[in-house]
Design a protein that fits this description.
alpha/beta, Rossmann fold, 2 domains, four-stranded parallel beta sheet, about 40% helix, binds ligand F0G, pyridoxal phosphate
Length: about 350
């Protein structure tokens, strides 16, 4: 038995990391591929959840950030900057702390989940709220890092991010012994679909898997530029993590869809919330609202026949449900506390 060494060490030969580099890691990756019996029963498919909320800061961003911060530090950078809907900033803040460098984050005013903000605060990031959306923040971050090259941009336009995140595809093939028939995931800025497709292709080219999955990229209906085929000026969705109107990796996402014979689809907030509650309430896995897009996409694609029963399907659930307690608790009725009394408990349970 050996402890999980973090994804750079686990996949060292596939990572662009020099032998003498000091690796910045919180032992990210190695997340479980959890069978989803309720979804499997419902669809007649073999469904698995790749539970990325179990990474060190609670999202898949840690896979990219171990690579991005390792690369930055070993190239002599003393500061990192990102635009973020919350998870990237939480991850950047943690890895920058680990590396002993400065982290600054640009976030859309009032539109990030509470848990994510708490993480950036606790890791000591310089938090700058911007009067704009994610797309505005990313444009700003790109301009600032172009003017100040000593600051490294750690959004997914940084190629090291994609290299780190491709390892999720490796892990899935390593567990299943082959690629799934369909891989569903939420799409926002489109770095992650780019990364998964890179990973699946790499293993396929090296003969480690003998097939490739069809990629199912799922966006929120109010923020679905790839589905519409045009940028969305004012994206809106309850799934703030993917409230993005102009994905930076647009071309790579389209290539992943086309080359894999895949599909983009949109899910309404109502369908996202339905899937969000289903995953927590039926599978026992608490994810954040944006993460449930993969499951909403599976259900819709199965209903219209794009995914046939009998298929093996992996849904990436990208972030931990604890990040967004407000959405979880919204609509919960006020309940009065009971006296310290077993009869009162029995009454409350309706077994009195
Ligand atoms: N799911 C979650 C929970 C996310 O935080 C993100 C992106 C995505 C899915 C979409 O991934 O951008 O690679 O297509 N969050 C970024 C952030 C934008 O700033 O944390 P993508």
């Amino acid at each position: 038995h050996r402890a999980w060494p973090g994804l750079i060490e686990a996949y060292r030969t596939r990572m662009p990391v020099a032998a003498d580099w000091k690796v910045v890691t919180l032992l990210e990756g190695g997340t479980p591929l959890v069978a989803a019996p309720y979804l499997s029963e419902l669809t007649g498919c073999e469904v698995y959840l790749k539970v990325e909320g179990l990474n060190p800061t609670g999202s898949f961003k840690d896979r990219g950030m171990t690579m991005a911060v390792t690369t930055a530090v070993n190239n002599g950078k003393r500061a990192v900057l990102c635009a973020s809907t919350g998870n990237t900033s939480a991850s950047a803040a943690a890895y920058a702390t680990r590396a002993g460098i400065t982290c600054a984050v640009l976030i859309p005013e009032g539109k990030i989940a509470m848990g994510k903000l708490a993480q950036a605060v606790m890791h000591g990031a310089k938090i700058i709220q911007v009067q704009g959306n994610f797309d505005d923040c990313l444009e700003l971050a790109r301009k600032v890092t172009a003017d100040f090259p000593e600051i490294e941009l750690v959004n997914s336009v940084n190629p090291a991010r994609i290299e780190g995140q491709k390892t999720a595809a490796f892990e899935i093939v390593d567990v299943l012994g082959r690629a799934p028939d369909v891989h569903a995931l939420p799409v926002g800025n489109a770095g992650n679909i780019t990364a998964y497709w890179t990973g699946y292709r790499e293993y396929h080219a090296d003969g480690i898997s003998d097939s490739l999955p069809r990629m199912l990229g799922v966006q929120a209906a109010g923020a679905a530029p790839l589905v519409n085929g045009a940028p969305v000026k004012n994206p809106e969705t309850i799934a703030t993590a993917i409230r993005i109107g102009s994905p930076a990796s647009w071309n790579q996402a389209v290539a992943a869809k086309d080359e894999s014979n895949g599909q983009f689809r949109a899910a309404t907030d109502e369908k996202l919330l339905e899937a969000y509650r289903l995953v927590a309430g039926q599978e026992g896995v608490f994810v954040e609202p944006a993460s449930a897009a993969s499951v909403a996409g599976l259900l819709a694609a199965h209903a219209d026949g794009w995914i046939a029963s009998g298929s093996t399907v992996v849904c990436t659930v990208t972030g931990n449900g604890l990040k967004d307690p407000d959405t979880a608790l919204s609509g919960m009725p006020e309940v009065n506390a009971i006296p310290v009394d077993p009869v009162a408990v029995a009454d409350a349970l309706g077994v009195g």
